[in-house]
Write a structure and sequence with these properties.
118 residues, alpha+beta, 2 helices, 23% helix
Length: 118
């Protein structure tokens, strides 16, 4: 029988908190982030960017960085916006969303930059 690993995520330790599926994996490289953005674009989804202070990360409401990038297909432009958001909010978590037009919901949601926990 396979054992299940326990992730020591605790409310008392903000640095241990997990933020979605990819947060349980090692931090993504620039190339892996690019592949995720390419996948969102190839599926015809609209990218959006949000950010928030780490202490409020469990909130349902994150700050929207500009408007969702409706119809944007330039991967480099999307990556540049992620970097701009991170540069403007260096201590914040920054996440990339992929809005699915068909289901009218988020089809992708991943933290790209993890802020400093306090």
């Amino acid at each position: 029988m396979m054992t299940v690993q326990d992730y020591p995520s605790r409310l008392s330790d903000p640095a241990s908190r997990k933020l979605g599926t990819f947060s349980y994996l090692p931090e993504m490289t620039k190339d892996q982030i690019r592949k995720q953005v390419e996948w969102i674009v190839q599926n015809g989804w609209n990218p959006g960017i949000e950010h928030i202070e780490p202490k409020f990360a469990k909130s349902n409401y994150w700050y929207m960085w500009k408007l969702p990038m409706f119809g944007e297909t330039d991967v480099d432009a999307i990556l540049a916006e992620l970097d701009d958001c991170h540069d403007a909010n260096p201590g914040h978590h920054v996440r990339l969303l992929g809005y699915n037009n068909f289901t009218q919901s988020q089809g992708a949601n991943m933290v790209v930059y993890r802020g400093t926990a306090v």
